[in-house]
Amino acid sequence: MSRRIVITSVFVGVVAVSAVTGGFVYLQHREQARLDAAAQATADRFASAWSGRDVKALPYAGRTADQVAASFKTTTAGLGKAPVKVAVTSLSRDGDKATGKLSVAWTVADGLTWTYPMPINLARNDKGAWAVVAKDGASMWAPGVSAKATLVAARTWGKRGDVLDRKGAPILSVSTVHDVTIDPARASAATVAALASLVGEPAGPLVSKFNAAKAAGSNAAIPVISLRKDDFEVKRAELDALVGVVYPSRQQPLAISTTFARPLLGSFGPVTGEIVKKSGGRYVAGDYAGLSGLQGQYDKQLGGTPGIKVTASDKPATPLFEKPAVAGTPMTLTLDPKVQSAAEAALASTGAVPSALVAVDVTTGDLLAVANSPAFGMNRALQSAYAPGSTLKVATTYSLLSKGLSPATTVNCPPSLVVEGTTMRNYEHETLGAVPFSVDFAHSCNTAFVGLAAKMGNSDVQAAAKALGIGAGWGSHLGVAGTFGGNVPVATSKVEKATSAFGQGRTSVSPAALAVMAGSVARGTYIEPALTRTPAVAGADRTPKPLNARAATELRGLMRLVVTKGTATAALGSVPGVFGKTGTAEFGNANPPATRAWFVGWQGNVAFAVLVEEGKSGASVAAPLAKTFLSKL
User: Average pLDDT of 42-69?
Assistant: First the structure.
């Protein structure tokens, strides 16, 4: 009995000891789990703080929180506002220390993420709290980087595509320019005045800018002018002698000359805040891009896709991350530099009065020249809308000839006619009397066309103009945003039908539209014009559309008569093989009205239209410019 009791007592004692031991193990396990969780929580807080770009509110070992925050700000400032996401991927604790790995992902550009692992070390302090170990030496923020190094994310661009002419030769290609600027901290007012004289800039405004920067204590460079390499080399010695004048070089697309096809080709320069905002991440402050014209419209093609490169200041030659830029691709135009230069030279004499000249290849319909004056103004050659005046008589005449009118038919040309109470007159009130229609056309008799218009349908002039290319829809296919292909509305009254017949009323054209019309008459077919070969423009239909052969032949004879025995004889009668039509279009509310001067025509394989926004008449102002243009060809 007693033996059994002893055995039972021993068993109970063993159970009691086991219970005590198990409880101790359990408590020990729970403490270890608590320490693990505390370490993990601290690591997670650090990852979250880094992701929020505010690492100050954490405990650190080895450095103060202020020192760590300053280090983070200095190191990562060059990454801008790039979003960052940091997560703890592993953590292992050994006593009062823990080590682990972080996954760091900086979104350094739209759709581009720089991802890398970083170690993390933790230690328990005297109060038993976990702290992130931050010691001098290697950077806490990027791998293989010293503690004092700074990170820089820089945009990179590949080679910009050239703009090529019809033969594949560059008319706009990337070259070196020097941006001449003033360092306000080193320069003087005398230096600034000397620089202005050297580069041909007004001294007063530049000195004022310098004085304002000096007074404000600004060290920002004051831009003055960008010089092409050749121009820079001519002035380099004198620039070197000016203290405080600096001239860093960069690459920029440059045309044959500073004015060559400028309104068409457009400009290139630093992007504005508005452009950055609308770009969807393509541009950032400091980028350069096409700002206007074809350079702006086709910047994505010409400029390619930007890349990104992240470097550290201690090892700038070794990228920490790089996505190479994709080079741009060239675009090819139908322009002929010789014809373009001749057109621009012809317009030079118009001075401050805006003018334009468009030339078309008769055989192909390609635009050979798109010239504008002033050279830095709008692209009125393609994008403007003006009343065509008597140049539209070409379309009216094509309609009349197609419906059976003969050039020999007698048509009266009185000084004036009244249509529904509206008096319509000839230019300077001239009268021809009863003469063959060929004479009326050659001398541009308005009243003869008014009389003939009475028997025309309301849509006849519109249909004829469209057959020759005015309002035919090609404006949206040319490849230049805002191109105006002309508009001749259906007449809604007898007065409008009469005024449309000689290019007034609601009729409107661009110089390009009239050049297309001239080319159609010259070849006997309408071909939709082209300006950009690459990229191809969607929707273009360049299939030739034949004109009425008899009417086209007779119309060519009449346009030759304008030059040999009509309104253009004084200006162009001595120039062989020219066909044309003068035009004088009234506009505005003055009495007498102001006038625009037109001449359209062709010689050989070059059809063209000349506009001068303000001029007495097409015969006296525009036709002489046509002569100059042709002489330079």
Answer: 96
Task: Count the helix, strand and coil residues of the chain and give each as a percent rounded to the nearest 5.
Answer: 35, 25, 35
Q: Residue 84 contacts by C-beta under 8 Å, 6 or more apart in sequence?
A: 50, 51, 53, 104, 105, 106, 107
Does residue 156 sit within a domain?
no
Distance CA(522)–CA(524), nearest Å, equals 6
E strands within 280-319?
Answer: 288-290, 307-312
The confidence score (pLDDT) of residue 137 equals 79
Where residue 2 falls among pLDDT bands split at 50, 70, 90?
very low
CATH of the domain at 626: 3.40.710.10
pLDDT at residue 295 greater than cutoff 70: yes
CB atoms within 10 A of CB 28: 10
Residue 569 tokens, joined: 């004889």
Q: Does residue 596 sit within a domain? A: yes
Residue 18 lies in a domain: yes
Average pLDDT of span 227-239: 96
Last residue of a domain, one of 278, 304, 333: 333
Nearest alpha-carbon partner for 610 in 626, 628, 592: 626
Residues 6+ apart with CB under 8 A from 295: 163, 172, 253, 265, 266, 267, 268, 302
Q: Which two tokens stand for residue 72?
A: 């983070």
Total structural domains within the chain? 3
Are residues 429 and 311 part of one domain? no
- Condensed to tens digits (0 to 9), the pLDDT of residues 23-50 reads 556 677 788 999 999 999 999 999 999 9
Report yes or no on 155 lying in a domain. Answer: no
Whether 619 and 600 have beta carbons less than 8 Å apart is answered as no
336 and 166 Cβ atoms separated by less than 8 Å? yes
Q: Are 587 and 521 members of one domain?
A: yes
**Do residues 502 and 372 share a domain?**
yes
Domain span including residue 477 = 337-632
| Residues contacting 73, CB < 8 A, separation 6+ | none
- Hey, is 69 helix, strand or coil? helix
